[in-house]
Amino acid sequence: MPRRPPPSRILSSALVLALAAGWCAPAAALDPVPAAAVGGGGTFYKLTAGEFSQLFGENPALPADRAVLALDVVPAGQSLQRWVVPGTEGAEVESSPALLYDQATSTLHLVWSSLNSGNLVSSRLWLRSYGAEGWADAIDLSGGTLAEKRALRLAVTSDDYLTRIDGVDVRRTRRILHLVWVEDTAGAGARTFYSPVVFVDGQYVGWNPVVALDDLVTAETPSPLPAADSLREVPALEVGRAGDRVVIGFVDSRTRRIAAVEVRLLPGEIGQLADEARGHIIELAGTMLPGSPGELADAARGHIIELAMGFHPAVAGYVAQGVHDYLASADPATAPLLLGEGAQQTVLTLGDQVGSSGLANSCAGQGAWLELPPLVPQPGADFPHFFALRQIRHWNAPEIADHPPVLLISPDGERALVGWIAGTQLFYRESLPEGGFWSELRILDLTQVPFGDALTALAARLAGR
User: What is the dihedral of CA 436, 17, 135, 39, to 10 degrees?
Assistant: First the structure.
């Protein structure tokens, strides 16, 4: 398998930024992810939602009370420039702005919630990106729902994969903007949602599925002390150490426990092999069955080895043999479509085990596969992108004070921390290794310990450094 590039370094300080922004903010406006970033060359960006007159003063361009998003841009050594973000000049009300600068592509990603209160009330999430060629077209990320979306979290990961186009090996680059948010749902209250936004060589694949993260939590017993409502409003999003996955911390709406879920993008070569194997086996089964499943299994094994020419021979052989064994044991009366889908799942599971994860535990039986077929295919990017989703841990909720909290998660999803500020003291509890329990209340005196040092030390402790 090709080597995967290291994670973008702009993400390495996200945990410290989250702590600093959350614990320094006024209680009424607490948000642990700042709508600010520093780009290449030291340019500072900040995204603000508000009324036009508050952000731009006396200006006849728009009504004074019109809700807009303003982007502040401060190039190194220059004065501030303030722009209205294109697409926010209308009657919709913008809120929950989030911003991320992707250093590898020198692209600024802006995401916000937009509420239309006309004849039909609807809330949507929009993405607008700004790069060397100016503003990209706006992308509707969520579709319209009645509930306003809030507590947006952003992260970016990337990889590349090798594919063959017209007999020539071509390397494609994928970048995934991971999006997490909270919205109210009927019956369950506040729930946390996730959506991956996939770009191949800079082109959006055309749509992005939305996943309710509660569906991945295996716990059935409610937390003895239900998580505070305030904790439901502060999901955590962290890039994993390998750079090919993210970890999300949130409150499960059913059990009111804190849970950690991992979302991992499978290598493109595995996704392409799984898609091609599925189609080929459906075709073979339609002509060879009913008959001997062994003959179908032998033919499929040989074809998968041919398709997997870019893989290490041992990986190709392992995956091909696994598909062979699956088909050889199948009921000859099984419909070709079901056989093809079963073979696809086998390729994903085995390829994931020996591919990017190096014999790590598969998510089969513990989570789910997320398949994202492109609506805007391009040569070498016309097969689905696959994500493995699984729960890592869940914890009983900790006892916290009646102050706006911050939830933090470690890069491996094995540890969590809940903290808040009261007066000049920073209070926190951290998860213990066993039993879903939490430490006693711990306090850092901010009059004795510099605030930045305290945050840096806590972030390093949570990450195990």
Answer: -140
Q: What is the mean pLDDT of residues 252-267?
A: 93
Among candidate residues 345, 390, 360, 437, the one with its CA nearest the CA of residue 218: 390
Specify whether 178 is located in the same domain as 305: no
Domain end marker among 187, 222, 257: 222
Asked whether residue 148 is assigned to any structural domain, the reply reads yes
Cα distance between residue 123 and residue 142, in whole Å: 9
Which neighbouring-strand residues pair with 70?
48, 84
Q: What is the dihedral of CA 28, 189, 364, 274, to 10 degrees?
A: -80
Looking at the structure, tell me whether residues 218 and 276 fall in a common domain: no
- C-alpha distances (whole Å) from 100 to each of 37, 277, 316, 331, 433 are 6, 37, 38, 51, 32
Reported as type and span, the H/E element at residue 202 is none
Query: Are residue 215 and residue 332 in the same domain, yes or no?
Result: no
Q: What is the pLDDT of residues 215-234, one digit of tens each?
A: 999 989 999 999 999 999 99
The helix (run of H) or strand (run of E) holding residue 3 is none
386 located within any domain: no
Q: 215 and 279: one domain?
A: no
| CA atoms lying within 13 Å on the CB side of residue 228 | 15
| 73 and 208 housed in the same domain | yes
Neighbouring C-beta atoms of residue 81, cutoff 10 Å: 10
Burial class (CB in 10 A: 0-12, 13-18, 19+), 445: exposed
* Residue predicted with more confidence, 108 or 5: 108
With contact defined as beta carbons under 8 Å apart, do 415 and 409 qualify? yes
Tell me the residue range of the domain where 316 lies: 270-355
Number of structural domains, the chain?
2
Encode pLDDT of 121-169 as tens digits.
789 999 999 998 999 999 999 877 788 899 999 999 999 988 888 888 8
Instruction: Specify whether 59 is located in the same domain as 130.
Output: yes
Q: Does 274 lie in the same domain as 216? A: no
